[in-house]
Amino acid sequence: MSFYRPGRRHRRGCCCCRLCIWTTIAVFILLLLAAAAAALFYVVYRPHRPSFSVTSFRLGYLSIAPSGVKSKFSLTVTTWNPNKKLVYVYSPIDVTVLASDITIGKGDIPAFIHGKRNSIVLKSSATNSSQPLGSETLTKLKAAIKAKTGVSLKLRLDSKAKVKAGSFKTPMIGVRVICDGIRAVIPASGKARPVVSIADAICEVKTLIKIWKPTFLF
């Protein structure tokens, strides 16, 4: 004759419950330690994001046809590190020029180290000879260029950077700089040089954090 012993299943359930509780406690403690370390880092170093500004932007030529976009830009960006104790280490920067969110120029800026309380002038040239354009994209670009107030351009800088404070180093974090407010007036004749205004250009710095596949901007 066999007997039913419910006590064993109950003990197994208790063990699983205890494991979940201890795991939760351990995760909570790790989160508290991470928060405390972040708070201590902020108190000691008072970190501030670097600032970027467009100081020069020239358009050599811009030709749009069904066969693609042909363009040439030369630009200068100045970046300022306001921190007294932090150094930024940048990977090479990908430069993208957009009109109506369509890429019309690509370039790059070499890797560099940005010292404390220091400004650095970054120069780049961007060119483009893209694949054939679809009719919708072509119409959108032509309409933007023919606008009386000029075509609105956007400058995007994508890179990775880490922060150094003495012997302490952070992992590489994605950085994206978006500069809006650039306007270019392109004469219809094609003989006069295009005029680019950066008087209203404003740059915003964002950090990109990847959690598995999605990318989050902060």
From TrEMBL:
Its main location: membrane. Keywords: Membrane, Transmembrane, Transmembrane helix. The chain crosses the membrane at residues 21-45. GO terms for biological process: defense response to other organism. InterPro entries: NDR1-like. It is found in: Membrane. This is Late embryogenesis abundant protein LEA-2 subgroup domain-containing protein. It comes from Trapa incisa. The lineage of its organism: Eukaryota, Viridiplantae, Streptophyta, Embryophyta, Tracheophyta.
